[in-house]
Automatic annotation (TrEMBL), chain A:
It is found in: Cell membrane. Its EC number is 2.7.13.3. SMART domains: HAMP, HATPase_c, HisKA. This is Sensor histidine kinase MtrB. GO terms for molecular function: kinase activity. Pfam families: HAMP (PF00672), HATPase_c (PF02518), HisKA (PF00512). It is an enzyme of class 2 (transferase). The keyword Transmembrane helix applies. InterPro entries: HAMP_dom, HATPase_C_sf, HATPase_dom, His_kinase_dom, HisK_dim/P_dom, HisK_dim/P_sf, MtrAB_MtrB, Sensor_HK_Regulatory. It catalyses: ATP + protein L-histidine = ADP + protein N-phospho-L-histidine. Residues 294-511 form the Histidine kinase domain. NCBIfam families: MtrAB_MtrB.
TrEMBL record, chain B:
This is DNA-binding response regulator MtrA. It holds the Pfam family Response_reg. It comes from Frondihabitans cladoniiphilus. Residues 125-224 bind DNA. The keyword Cell membrane does not apply. Keywords: DNA-binding, Phosphoprotein, Transcription, Transcription regulation, Two-component regulatory system. The gene is mtrA. Residues 4-117 form the Response regulatory domain. It comes from the Bacteria. CDD domains: REC_OmpR_MtrA-like (cd17626), trans_reg_C (cd00383). The keyword Nucleotide-binding does not apply. InterPro entries: CheY-like_superfamily (IPR011006), MtrA_REC (IPR047673), MtrAB_MtrA (IPR047671), OmpR/PhoB-type_DNA-bd (IPR001867), Sig_transdc_resp-reg_receiver (IPR001789), WalR-like (IPR039420), WH-like_DNA-bd_sf (IPR036388).
Length: 532, 226
């Protein structure tokens, strides 16, 4: 493992915490149960430790008391014999020591010391004696003072014993002996408690191992339980993803009658309802498309008959009297208009129903624009406008639907001629690496900004009182916008009252390409100059 | 002799109106208002051209087109109320030579009919060779060795147009003008579909055409691309 790997751990764990419900649940369970087990373990070991210590201390108390009594008896019996010389005292002392040692039975070993209480003057003294390993230094002065001053009871002090095996716990017990003719002596017994300590350590170790094993077991159990609960939830998540992706028939298996099964059943119920709704909507959309198609057929057949009849009459209008001739003319033009309106309406309904398809083929945009301009030249001449094509780019084959692009161009040119007031019309074609754009600008009446925002609305007219000259249906720009959007492109408008209107259609060069740039700017380059 | 035209349309008013238009332009119309009876009418009337509505009771117009095409190469012009792509392509693929979208005007209809009925363009030679095919211009026949390949008049004209100038690349627009008689922008799918139909008949491997090859981004030309 790389040395720096530990630095990534916190981030990794945090990520796991956020991502994995299992990890979170197991972590929380392990931490909480770990705390609980630790608290229980510590309190158990403390109470057992206290218990063991108390028991040992009682034992020591009893032993010490007996030892003290025995030793005192030895000295007392000697006194009763009357003698009191130094030699006898020394032998008595040795006798007392061995008696005390035999009276105590500590497994860790007991050391003994008989020390003279300082500050007395007596006829005779006996030497302080101590076992070879007696830890004189461990006896505190407080213990000695307490022992010396109060001879009626035992005094205890915990001590630590330095042995070959390291420091071990011990207990020092102090009592007093009255030696005839030699005054008061203090008897100290130091008990080694290492055996009790060993027992305790072993118990604590066992407890610790048991606790760790318990926590691990809890972790494993939690993992299994979480898997049991989370598994169905995960299936639900996957299923809902599949449904969202359109696999409406996907369902969760329902087994049993527990809460998970209830979840599955309610989920499936919801999916059923949604499926029905979606299928209803799809049916509705299909019906709408079907309706459009039917209306198309049903309306167009009688219209064709009217058209044929009207045209036949129109061709013979010279044979009619003046008013009948005019009637035939009106019939002819209005049938044309009706036809255009019907075609546009059907086209819009097709967009609304989503029943449109882009049919791209390699299209040379400059050639397409030039053809379009030539087609509109008679109309422009009629209005007194000239059309100027400025082709800076777009000489390559772009992947476009020529029918739709041509339709956009026709709408823009027709619009420019209608609102151009006989002024020149500029047509710009340009391209860059990703997009190709056509700009059509008139220098006519223009529009106010708030009107310009509505030009793509259906049947909207900037000035309702204005006369229709070209006979647009009021749907042309709406359809053009849809055509541009279908290419993944844009159709933008700039307009200023009294200056003119400029439309720019920007289309991606390849099908499905994204638009990030505008080869032809929406604002005309001379806009600033003219608006002044 | 006046050309006979079979009008297959279920709308009596439209049929009658088309009849009036056709008569005034010197054609002799015959009528059939039911798809199921169309093939029988075709047999009994022996028309020179069929105007076929796509939506018919009894039998679908596309099916009728397929049935007629199976036994005859005579010109079929579809009358379609749908400008939807799929319907037009389906109609062309089933064998229609051309289509007119309702509502059409009389001149448009008559122009379409005349183009399809005009005598084959005067070729300067009697026979042409494209790949391993021989075109007998006078007899309107295409042979591979001794086998005659059955082409409709339209398919023959398409192949002839390409073969008469073997080095020239024809754009779809040029073919539309020369073969279909469109003098303005028309539907280039007409060309695409009929080139596919032609290839299916004359190529050894339609997926790897050697007789009518595609020039990417431009159009078509006769013979394998060098």
């Amino acid at each position: 493992m790389p040395r720096l790997a530990w630095r990534t751990w916190p981030g990794w764990l945090l990520g796991l915490w956020r991502k994995s419900l299992e990890f979170r649940t197991i972590a929380i369970t392990v931490i909480l149960s770990g705390i609980a087990v630790t608290v229980i373990g510590v309190s158990i070991s403390v109470s057992i430790g206290t218990n063991v210590y108390d028991q040992r201390r009682q034992q020591i108390e009893v032993e010490s008391e007996r030892a003290t009594v025995l030793a005192q008896n030895i000295f007392d019996s000697a006194t009763s014999t009357g003698t009191g010389n130094q030699i006898e005292l020394d032998s008595l002392q040795n006798q007392a020591q061995s008696t005390i040692l035999s009276a105590t039975s500590s497994p860790g070993g007991t050391s003994i010391a008989i020390l003279r209480t300082p500050g007395q003057t007596t006829a005779q003294t006996i030497q302080d004696i101590a076992s070879p390993d007696f830890p004189t230094a461990a006896l505190s002065s407080e213990l000695r003072k307490a022992t010396a001053s109060n001879s009626s009871k035992l005094h205890f002090q915990p001590v630590s014993l330095a042995t070959n095996a390291g420091t071990q716990a011990g207990l020092a017990v102090g009592s007093t002996l009255q030696v005839p003719t030699a005054g008061q002596y203090e008897l100290y017994l130091v008990y080694n408690l290492s055996d009790a300590q060993k027992t305790l350590a072993f118990m604590e170790q066992t407890l610790a191992i048991g606790s760790i094993a318990l926590v691990l077991l809890i972790a494993v159990i939690t993992y299994i339980v979480v898997r049991l609960v989370v598994g169905p939830v995960r299936v639900a998540a996957e299923t809902s993803q599949k449904i969202a992706a359109g696999q409406l028939d996907e369902r969760i298996p329902e087994t049993g009658s527990d809460v998970i099964a209830t979840l599955g059943r309610s989920f499936n119920g919801m999916a059923d309802v949604m499926q029905v709704q979606i299928e209803q909507l799809a049916d509705l959309s299909r019906m709408q498309q079907r309706f459009v198609s039917d209306v198309s057929h049903e309306l167009r057949t009688p219209l064709t008959t009217i058209r044929l009849a009207g045209d036949l009459l129109y061709d013979h209008r010279a044979d009619f009297d003046a008013s009948s001739g005019r009637t035939v003319e009106l019939l002819h033009t209005q049938v044309d208009r009706f036809e255009l309106l019907l075609a546009d309406l059907l086209e819009i309904s097709r967009f609304d129903a989503g029943a449109v398809e882009l049919e791209t083929e390699p299209v040379n945009v400059v050639r397409l624009v030039e053809d379009g301009v030539i087609e509109f030249e008679p109309l422009a001449d009629e209005a007194g406008s000239t059309m100027q094509v400025d082709a800076r780019g777009g000489f390559f084959e772009a992947e476009l639907d020529p029918r739709r692009v041509r339709r956009i161009l026709r709408n823009l040119l027709g619009n420019a001629i209608e609102h151009g007031e006989g002024n020149p019309i500029d047509v710009v074609v340009d391209s860059d690496a990703h997009a190709v754009a056509i700009g059509v600008q008139d220098h006519g009446i223009g529009m106010r900004a708030e009107d310009a925002g509505r030009v793509f609305d259906r049947f909207w007219r900037a000035d309702p009182s204005r006369r229709r000259t070209i006979g647009g249906t009021g749907l042309g720009l709406s359809i053009s916008l849809e055509d541009a959007l279908l290419h993944g492109g844009r159709l933008d408008v700039w307009s200023e009252a009294g200056v003119g209107t400029r439309f720019v259609v920007t289309l991606p060069r390849v099908r499905g390409g994204a638009l990030t740039s505008r080869p032809v700017p929406i604002e005309p380059p001379d806009a600033e100059g003219e608006s002044e | 002799m006046t050309p006979r035209i079979l009008v297959v349309d279920d709308d009596p008013a439209l049929s009658e109106m088309i009849g009036i238009v056709l008569r005034s332009d010197g054609f002799e119309p015959a009528f059939c208002g039911d798809g199921a009876a169309a093939l029988a009418a075709f047999h009994s009337e022996a028309p020179d051209l069929v105007l076929l509505d796509l939506m018919l009771p009894g039998l679908d117009g596309i099916e009728v087109c397929r049935l007629i095409r199976a036994e005859s190469g005579i010109p079929i012009i579809m009358l379609t109320a749908k400008s939807d792509t799929t319907d037009i392509v389906r109609g062309l693929e089933s064998g229609a030579d051309d289509y007119v979208v309702k509502p059409f005007n009389p001149k448009e209809l008559v122009a379409r009919i005349r183009t399809r009925l005009r005598p084959a363009s005067e070729a300067s030679v009697d026979a042409l060779a494209v790949g391993d095919l021989t075109l007998d211009v006078a007899a309107h026949e295409v042979r591979r060795g001794d086998t005659i390949i059955n082409l409709t008049p339209l398919e023959f004209e398409l192949l002839l147009a390409l073969a008469s100038k073997p080095q020239q690349v024809f754009t779809r627009e040029m073919l539309l003008e020369q073969v279909w008689g469109y003098h303005y922008k028309a539907d280039t799918r007409l060309v695409n579909v009929h080139v596919q139909r032609l290839r299916a008949k004359v190529e050894h491997d339609p997926d790897n055409p050697r007789i009518v090859s595609t020039v990417r981004g431009v159009g078509y030309r006769a013979g394998a691309t060098a």
